[in-house]
């Protein structure tokens, strides 16, 4: 579970995020929506412990700065950050040992298959296409078998078939008990798989809505109503 | 033209604004400006042992080192395979905007002129740093600035000219190598002539340094002629030296601005490409400006936890072949040749090696590592991560330094104890330099530059030397300064290097958690 309490982040006098409360529950897919400048990136960076903030963020019941929280936390950033000269396999070795994951090769194998990276395992990151680097970035986050997963714009650079596969995979990970929090602009893509949505505007959470509360209305229409078309 | 002047003004303003955006960065910038001011002031106004300028071996070698520094800087720019007339942004707006060729060329000239001034100040700081005890007057400093500025401009305009020539015709691509080769041949001829004149091979470097034959080396020889003639009060020769530099500049500049070929398309492409690479370099990718050949290699096993970062970095170093690179071997080889030929002994080699260490310890690897969010997410203690990131650089410089000290120490028949003491000193400097890099990144974050980093190293070196200096003064005042006390004080200074470095590393460990470093 990812639990955010009274998160406030100021840049000088400007409050990028103001008293945000958010819970991404285990076994569910929670999405974070909002127009540009709503505070999504600040929230995500705070969860990943890259920003100083007021309030508290717990991951799996631990403070997000603690080693215990990091051990159960997976993060897929919007732009993959990989080591150009390391091969796919070497990235897997690095993360496997850094997180001290037992049987990490076996665990990575199924994602290599799933993301069609098996043939590319000896390729260096700089030799991969944009979509492939995104897949490798996801693989590295998934192979640690996180209890809480934070995914920032997961579909950027992926082809339609990979998007479908990724959505299924995220659903599967959530069904196995992981708390999945996705930040995205592309509402259409996540509208089928989400369980709960938080809508942000001008640094505040303006609405928390569960899927079954939407009734006939689509999430997209609901979002535009709330954000006045932004 | 007005809009281009405005563009330059706004860019300069933005750079200054960025430096003063955060209090820590602002304080540091002011400190550096004051320090530079103090260096100039103390060089010009503080009392010296030597009351007047004299033409002796020291002056000749100092000026030649100054000229050599300029030559190294200019030839490395000239022979670099990456060239561009402007930054990517400037090129985009200049070539696609409503500007004609004359305006573009004028803007480029203005930019080259400013670059030359800045670089000549930089070279002068190097000269001052090497000759703090030398007594010089304002005239000499002014001439050194003017002469070096003309020298730099000649080369920068020539580099631009050869670049646009090579866009028009591929055969001109080799022109820079030919020019560098000509300079090399001229130097070899002068060395040969010096030998024929004196008949001594052992002191050939000393004789070469003092030989008037060097004045026949184009551009650099004329600069030396100007400076030496000023000290000997031969104003005619000063004017001759300057005149030769000015004439060369005018000829090259005229060739450049009258070039008729079309170079816009390639120039724009190269500018954008170089800007991208420079940004990557600044962001920590040390290889962005190099053509790295990747070796096929593997690592036997990855260590667990934070030390997986160490395994990963060692693997990357092996792939890039830079654990012990040819560059390092050549640099140290040059130091050794200079030491042997100039007959300056083991102490001089140690001095050169400390400078090598100073240059080797750049933050790029560390900055690059900190750009990757993975380092923060690894579930391990921050100080372990910091150590894991630092070990590869430490290993590299320690291995090369130790081997060099032992080999050269044995050549000079130094005792084991002497070599051992120098090695301990070297490790003290390695610790200080590395901790200074860490502290600079911690304080300045993305605004970290090599200049700031070097200044920080000097500052920490001064701080670690302070207790010894204070104690020395106290012992002197109480007449208790004996050779034994002096040895103990130098040991205390060395111990301070280690203690201070460890304190800094301990205090900065939090930055491996992400929150502290990336917050703003």
UniProtKB/TrEMBL annotation, chain A:
Keywords: ATP-binding, Nucleotide-binding, Transport. The keyword DNA-binding does not apply. InterPro entries: AAA+_ATPase (IPR003593), ABC_transporter-like_ATP-bd (IPR003439), ABC_Transporter_VariousFunc (IPR051782), P-loop_NTPase (IPR027417). Residues 2-227 form the ABC transporter domain. It comes from the Bacteria. It holds the Pfam family ABC_tran. One of its GO terms (molecular function) is ATP binding. This is ABC transporter ATP-binding protein. It comes from Massilimicrobiota timonensis.
């Amino acid at each position: 579970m990812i639990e955010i309490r009274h998160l406030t982040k100021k840049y000088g006098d400007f409050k990028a995020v103001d008293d945000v409360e958010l819970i991404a529950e285990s076994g569910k897919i929670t999405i974070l929506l909002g127009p540009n400048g709503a505070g999504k990136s600040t929230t995500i960076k705070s969860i990943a412990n890259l920003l100083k903030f007021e309030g508290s963020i717990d991951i799996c019941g631990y403070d997000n700065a603690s080693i215990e929280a990091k051990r159960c936390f997976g993060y897929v950033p919007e732009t993959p950050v990989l080591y150009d000269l390391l091969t796919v396999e070497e990235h897997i070795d690095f993360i496997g040992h850094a997180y001290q994951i037992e049987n990490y090769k076996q665990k990575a194998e199924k994602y290599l298959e799933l993301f069609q990276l098996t043939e590319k395992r000896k390729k260096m990151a700089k030799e991969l296409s944009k979509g492939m680097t995104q897949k490798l970035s996801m693989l590295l986050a998934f192979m640690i078998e996180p209890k809480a997963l934070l995914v920032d714009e997961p579909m950027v650079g992926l082809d339609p078939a990979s998007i479908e596969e990724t959505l299924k995979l995220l659903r599967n990970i959530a069904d196995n008990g992981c708390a999945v929090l996705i930040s995205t602009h592309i509402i259409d893509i996540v509208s089928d798989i989400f369980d709960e949505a938080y809508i942000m505007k001008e640094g505040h959470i303006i609405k928390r809505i569960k899927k079954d509360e939407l009734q006939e209305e689509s999430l997209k229409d609901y979002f535009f109503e709330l954000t006045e078309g932004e | 033209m007005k809009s281009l002047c405005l563009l330059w003004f706004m860019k300069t303003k933005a750079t200054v604004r960025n430096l003063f955006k955060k209090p820590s960065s602002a304080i540091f910038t002011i400190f550096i400006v004051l320090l530079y001011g103090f260096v100039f002031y103390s060089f010009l106004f503080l009392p010296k042992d030597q009351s007047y300028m004299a033409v002796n071996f020291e002056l000749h070698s100092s000026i030649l080192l100054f000229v050599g520094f300029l030559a190294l800087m200019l030839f490395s720019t000239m022979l670099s395979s990456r060239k561009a007339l402007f930054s990517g942004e400037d090129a985009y707006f200049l070539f696609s905007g409503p500007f004609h060729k004359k305006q573009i060329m004028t803007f480029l000239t203005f930019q080259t002129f400013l670059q030359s001034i800045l670089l000549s100040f930089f070279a002068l700081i190097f000269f001052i740093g090497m000759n703090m005890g030398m007594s010089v007057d304002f005239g000499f400093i002014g001439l050194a600035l003017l002469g070096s500025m003309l020298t730099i401009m000649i080369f920068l305009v020539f580099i631009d000219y050869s670049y646009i020539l090579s866009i028009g015709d591929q055969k001109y691509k080799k022109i820079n190598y030919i020019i560098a080769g000509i300079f090399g041949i001229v130097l070899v001829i002068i060395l040969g002539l010096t030998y024929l004149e004196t008949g001594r091979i052992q002191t050939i470097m000393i004789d070469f340094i003092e030989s008037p034959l060097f004045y026949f080396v184009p551009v650099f020889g004329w600069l030396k002629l100007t400076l030496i003639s000023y000290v000997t009060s031969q104003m005619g020769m000063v004017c001759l030296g300057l005149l030769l530099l000015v004439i060369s500049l005018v000829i090259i500049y005229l060739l450049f601005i009258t070039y008729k070929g079309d170079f816009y398309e390639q120039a724009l492409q190269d500018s954008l490409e170089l800007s991208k690479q420079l940004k990557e370099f600044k962001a920590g990718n040390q290889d962005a400006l190099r053509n790295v050949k990747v070796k096929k290699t593997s690592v036997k096993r990855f260590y667990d936890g934070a030390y997986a970062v160490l395994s990963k970095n060692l693997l990357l170093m092996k792939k890039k072949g830079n654990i012990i690179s040819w560059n390092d071997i050549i640099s140290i080889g040059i130091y050794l040749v200079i030491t042997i030929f100039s007959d300056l002994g083991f102490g001089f080699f140690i001095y050169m090696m400390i400078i090598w260490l100073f240059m080797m310890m750049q933050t790029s690897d560390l900055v690059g590592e900190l750009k990757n969010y993975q380092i923060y997410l690894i579930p391990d203690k921050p100080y372990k991560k910091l150590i894991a990131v630092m070990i590869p650089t430490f290993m590299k410089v320690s291995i090369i330094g130790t081997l060099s000290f032992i080999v050269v120490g044995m050549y000079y028949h130094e005792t084991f104890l002497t070599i051992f003491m120098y090695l301990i000193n070297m490790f003290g400097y390695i610790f200080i330099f590395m901790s200074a890099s860490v502290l600079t990144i911690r304080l300045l974050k993305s605004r970290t530059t090599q200049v700031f980093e070097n200044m920080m190293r000097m500052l920490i070196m001064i701080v670690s030397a302070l207790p010894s200096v204070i104690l020395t003064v106290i012992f002197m005042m109480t007449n208790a300064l004996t050779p034994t006390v002096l040895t103990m004080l130098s040991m205390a200074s060395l111990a301070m290097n280690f203690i201070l470095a460890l304190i800094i590393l301990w205090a900065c460990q939090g930055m491996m958690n992400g929150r502290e470093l990336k917050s703003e």
